[in-house]
Amino acid sequence: MSERNLMSTEALAQWTVKRAQALGADSASAEVSHDKGLSVTVRMDEVDAVEHTEERMLSLTVWVGSRKGCASTSDLSERALDAAVRAAVDIARVSAEDEATGLPNEADLQETFRDLDLWHSFEGDVDEAIALAQEAEEAAWQTDERIVNSDGTNFSTSSGEFTLANSLGFCAGYRYSRHTLDCAPIAEDASGMQRDVWWTEARHIEDMESPSDVGRQAAQRSVARLGARMLTSQRARVLFDASVAVGLLDILEELLSGRAWYRHASCLEGRLGESILPRTISIEENPYIPRRVGSGVFDDEGCAAKQRWIVEEGRLTGLFLSSYSARKLGMRTTGNLGGAYTLTLQSEDTDAKRDTRSAMLERLGTGLLVTELIGQGLNPVTGDYSRGAAGFWIENGKIAYPVEGITIASNILTMMETIEAVGADTFDSGVRRSGSILVPDLMLAGE
Q: What is the pLDDT confidence band of residue 376, given thresholds at 50, 70 and 90?
């Protein structure tokens, strides 16, 4: 293996697979990646941190019969690679047999390698990265005189390439990039201090919110929380702000993962074809939206995903399966080793002109608008849900005052089944999309 080949992720991946077979593996899969990144943090007009990263990594999985072994290395010299391959083969020879393990079925591998336009590396230098963070923080300072401090503003960027190869003859990869900007100003008045955050993330710098918009939004959120109170314990109507409502999609990804189902660790186990949301609500997965953070050409074992309904008109129609979890369940992979792609929650009852944010507050009437959730607080087996929350108490459709230090509790199955409305105030994280979600009855634990 020449030094020139060491620079090619494709050549390295193919060499590793062949070497594993030469050392006794019946089948093998190798991924080689090369990633470079830059992260800068500014605080109070000063540069707080600058970090450069660069990593080359090889991850290898081999099978000897139905026994599996894995190894990885960041040292891509021929000696280190050979040692990693030998280690993986040795591990496989002494591992327990598992009939569900192995390479994916050849028919499930991706065959259509479309260009999703996922690579737009940051062309600036450190000074330009610092300038982006400073612009956001300066905008926060200028928004309101009650912004008196900062937890810092961070701009992070990374780009790279990878190749996945296996002994079925699959060999493919692509380049990617990801950029994030977040700002966390601190506001203060006679009532005390409050902090909130706003952020933006995209594959291309041009698709991000502007630094000044990020700073202003972060400052407005921090100021709005000044004077926050606690609530007395009660049952109430609750509107989840769109930026919080997208978290429901993360919960569903957990509950609908093949691993959770074959381990009997999901309260949705066995409910394919049943209604889990109101008939008006559907959830779509789409791996192939160009320039999306949540897009990908194939999953972590080379399998093709599909644009599909996970929930269609309220009925559960899809799971998130790898080849392994699919075999455990007697199903077929959905191309989701590595997780779900872009998920979008939508309601056929939502009207873009009618169901604005202000209209959703009017529909809430009197109750709690949740703008932040704290902690995990979900028992995936029972569905019991309990999380810390902050937001605003709403009276007659108008914000009355900010609230904090409360806990909201229910069961996730009940919450999903009783969703009353989905707003047109869509929040797009790059991976999840949803409008605000109105739930008519939750327990609030406070004073």
A: confident
